[in-house]
Amino acid sequence: PACDGLRLQRTGIMASRTIESRNSRMITMLVNPLMSCSARLPVYVLLTGAFFPQTAGTVMLILYASGILLAVLMARLFKRFLFNDEDIPFVMELPPYRMPTGKSIMIHSGKAKQYLHKMGGIILVASIIIWFLGYFPRHSENGDVFDKQIAEVEQSAITPEEKAETIAELERLKSMDHQQESYIGRIGQTIQPILHPLGFDWKMSVSLLTGMAAKEVVVSTLSVLYTGESDDSQVLTERLKQDKNAKGEPVFTPLIALSFMLFVLIYFPCIATISAIVHESGSWKWGIFVIIYTCVLAWIVSCVVYQTGHFFMNLFN
Fold first, then answer.
1. I want to staple 309 with a disulfide (CB 3.0 to 4.6 A). Which of 34, 96, 184, 255 is the partner?
2. Confidence of residue 282 (pLDDT cuts 50, 70, 90)
3. What is the model's pTM?
4. What three-state secondary structure class fits 232?
5. CA-CA distance, 136 to 269, in Å (whole number)?
C-alpha cells in the first residue's frame, strides 16, 4: 500500500503536465504533497487505534480533510504571491471513460519499469544513507554491557525457558540502546529541542527523520525504539501509552498523537515525489522549496494544535 501511495502521488505530479497553464501546473505540483497517501496510513492506524479507539474514523477523516484544506489555502497563497501573473484559463476536455482491456493493461503496466528505473536510484541512495545512520556505530559501552550480561545468562544455571526469556529481553534492550546511540539517534536527540514545542521527544524525532525516505518507516522505527522489534505492532500500542519521561509524565498522549499525525501528514514528501517535482518543473529549486515549506508548515500547524490544546487542558484542569 505504501508503494501504491508513493506511486500515485508521483503519478499525480506527472499528470499535471496536461495542464496548459504553467502557473496552474506549478501550483498543482507544489500542493500535491499535502494530499494524504496510503504510505501515511500505517501511522494513522497505529495512533488512532491506540489513542482514539472510539473515534478513530472521525480522527482519520479530520486528517484527510486537513490535507485538503491546507492544499486549498497554500494554492491561494502561491497564486497570490508566487504565480500572480495573468495566465490562460484552465479548460480540459475529459475523454470518454471505458472499461480497460487486457491489451491496454499490459501495454501501460510496462511503464512500471520506467518508474523503477527513474526513481529506484534516488530512493536506493536515500535508503542506504538512512540505513547507514541507523546501523552505525555498531559498538557502544552499553552494548558491551548487554553482551556481557547475555554471556553471563548463557552460563547461568537457570531453566532453559527462563534463560531464553531473559536473553530475549536483554537483546530487546540492546536493540533499543543501539538505536539511541546510532548516528541517526544522536541527530534525533540534537534536533529534539526544535520539536519539543510540538510535544515530541527524541524517539519521535528519530522516526520523523527515517520517515523522510518513506512514511511507513515511521511505524517500524517507533516499534524498534519502543519495543526493540520492528514488527511488534501489537505490543507497540501498549508501550506508546505506557512510556513516561523523566518527570513521570506520559510521552504520548492523545493530543501529542494528533500533533504527530498532522506533522507526518504535512512534512517532507517522499524522495520519489521530490524527484518528480524536480523533473517536471525543470529545476531543483522547486524541489528544495517544497521540502522547506512543508517542514515549516508542518511545524507551525502541529505547534498551534499542541500548544492550543495544552493551554485549554491546563485551563480546565
1. 255
2. confident
3. 0.78
4. coil
5. 26
Please give the DSSP secondary-structure letter assigned to residue 239: H
Beta-bridge partners for 250: 244
Residues ≥6 apart with Cβ < 8 Å to 46: 219, 222, 233, 236, 237, 240
Chain mean position to CA 232: 18
The answer to whether the CB of 163 falls within 8 A of the CB of 154 is: yes
Instruction: Write the pLDDT tens digit of every residue in 93-136.
Output: 777 877 878 877 777 666 666 655 655 565 566 667 767 877 88
Distances (CA, A) of 97 to 4, 100, 315: 22, 9, 56
Q: Which value, in Å, is the radius of gyration of the alpha carbons in the chain?
A: 23
Average the pLDDT over 140-162 and give the result.
83
Residue 232 has pLDDT above 70, yes or no: no
Question: Backbone phi, then psi, for 109, in 5-degree steps?
Answer: -70, -20
